[in-house]
Amino acid sequence: MRLVADNLAGERGGETVFSGIGFTLGGGDALVVTGPNGIGKSTLLRAVAGLLPLAAGRLALEGGGEKWPNLASACHYLGHQNAMKTALTVTENLAFWRDFLGEAHLPLSDALDMVGLADIGHLPFGYLSTGQRRRIAIARLLVAYRPVWLLDEPTAGLDRASEAQFADLMAAHCEDGGMIVAATHLPLALENAQQLRMGSG
Ligand SMILES: Nc1ncnc2c1ncn2[C@@H]1O[C@H](COP(=O)(O)OP(=O)(O)OP(=O)(O)O)[C@@H](O)[C@H]1O
Fold first, then answer.
1. What CATH number is attached to the domain comprising 171?
2. Which residues of 88-125 are buried (b: 16+ CB within 10 A; e: fewer)?
3. Residue with the nearest Cα to atom 30 of ligand 1?
4. What separation in Å is there between the alpha carbon of 168 and the centre of ligand 1?
5. Distance from Cα 96 to the centre of ligand 1, integer Å
6. Which residue puts its alpha carbon closest to atom 12 of ligand 1?
7. Choosing a second label site near 35 at 20 to 30 A (CA), which of 21, 26, 46, 153?
């Protein structure tokens, strides 16, 4: 499977925010996107996810077969927001996403265990701390399978131990043939990742 981005341009509110962006990822590859505030990192990720139209260029998932007929169908998108309902419990939120997304992957209890929060499935999401909320949002990546993870500031609010735990999850996803595109201001422990520095000419 290959994710091909060719000569992309993105716009917000009628203004071009970036142009001439290109990259190619194969199974197991990761791309780290960096650049100053407002340069268009989130816009790029949302375009790859199919949530925003491109102003120009071509995005394609090659070799996805019948299971992943287009790029959007193959993507998990973890945005700045955690996309969880505060009144529902952690388990209810994750069960919703597993059923909504399809392609059930890890059991909910295993996913919670892998983000170090095995004991809080019964709590309303709204009771959780900032870092705990982010870790539950990360657990969503594990309960339904998608080969492409699009991660916008995934480690914002995480402590050191949780950062390391998430690095292991990203590495396992890539070892399994998955792909990652991550926008970040913080160092991410993604070995051998390609780098895209937006705004550096
Ligand atoms: N809905 C919108 N309408 C108009 N302009 C927008 C909209 N959303 C974002 N923008 C503008 O698009 C540009 C790119 O924003 P974007 O969020 O992609 O940047 P970013 O590189 O992710 O920034 P940060 O590092 O602060 O997260 C900014 O100038 C922003 O003001």
1. 3.40.50.300
2. ebbbbbbbbbbeeeeeeebebeebbebbebeebbeebb
3. 38
4. 30
5. 29
6. 12
7. 26
Q: Please, which residues have CB within 8 angstroms of residue 70's CB and are 6 or more apart in sequence?
A: 50, 61, 64
Q: Which of 182, 183, 168, 174 is nearest to 147 (CA)?
A: 174
ipTM beyond cut 0.85: yes
Pocket test for ligand 1, best of 11, 42, 186 (most atoms within 8 A of CB): 42
Ligand 1 center–CA 12 separation, angstroms: 7
Tell me, what amino acid is at 85?
Answer: K
Q: What is the pLDDT of residues 78-103, one digit of tens each?
A: 999 999 999 999 999 999 999 999 99
Q: Does residue 40 surpass a pLDDT of 70?
A: yes
The tokens 């199919």 sit on which residue?
A: 50
Q: How far apart are CA 158 and CA 164, in angstroms?
A: 10
pLDDT of amino acid 201: 61
Give the DSSP H/E element, type plus range, for residue 76: strand 75-78
* Residue with more model confidence, 186 or 47: 47
pTM of structure: 0.96
Pocket around ligand 1: residues whose beta carbon is below 6 Å from it?
12-13, 17, 35, 37-43
Range of the domain at 86: 2-197
Distance from Cα 200 to the centre of ligand 1, integer Å: 17
DSSP assignment of 7-63: EEEEEETTEEEEEEEEEEEETT-EEEEE-STTSSHHHHHHHHTTSS--SEEEEEEES
